[in-house]
Amino acid sequence: MPDTVSFGYEDIAPEDKTRRVGEVFSNVASKYDLMNDAMSGGLHRLWKDLFVRRVKPRAGEHILDMAGGTGDIAFRMAPSGAAITVADINPEMLAVGIERAAARGIANGRKPDTGSLVWTEANAESLQFPERFFDAYTIAFGIRNVTDIPRALREAHRVLKRGGRFYVLEFSTTQWPGFGQIYDAYSHHLVPRLGKLLANDADSYRYLVESIRRFPPMPEFEKMIREAGFTQTRVEPLLGGMVAIHSGWKI
Fold it and tell me: Any idea which of 100-114, 133-147, 163-177 has the lowest mean pLDDT?
């Protein structure tokens, strides 16, 4: 790992990023949907629906949903009948997900005619799960907040079975002429103001915007996925690349 890593537009020590990112998500956990609505104009709901359709969860599979604490992806996959482990490094985010599950009538991690949900605190860089355990690994809007991304990608590869599939949904950089400048103006100037108005927290929202700008471009991130051991990697840009679905297979 390098001596410094990005925290928004700052370069800081790796251990400081882990702590400061944790503070950001502790701050925004109770306003998670508002945060994503502010970041995407509400489109995150449609992107997550498409993401789960690409994953194609199936009954009997074991799926790890990393950085999925509030349950947005897990709740969408549960009707498939898959056994889903919802993992997050942040206990406040997990608490929100467990509360949301209870509100949906999912008792003890299971609802009739759905798969099971298990909630666990875990660090994407050092997973406690055995090798070749999961059929699929998903992470939505979480990989850019990981301190050591290559290490997290290697861990994802390690815990997947042979034939397992890997899916990432993440903000990126749109390639549509003119649209990037419009979104930059919106995200840099309006999103922190919305954060202040909706959650009394402009700084956390400002970091989240800046973290998108420091995330590797789509070809570079796809290369990182290949270097972690995945094959048949693919990138599906949405809105010209404002968001992208990355995928790969372990063979």
Answer: 100-114
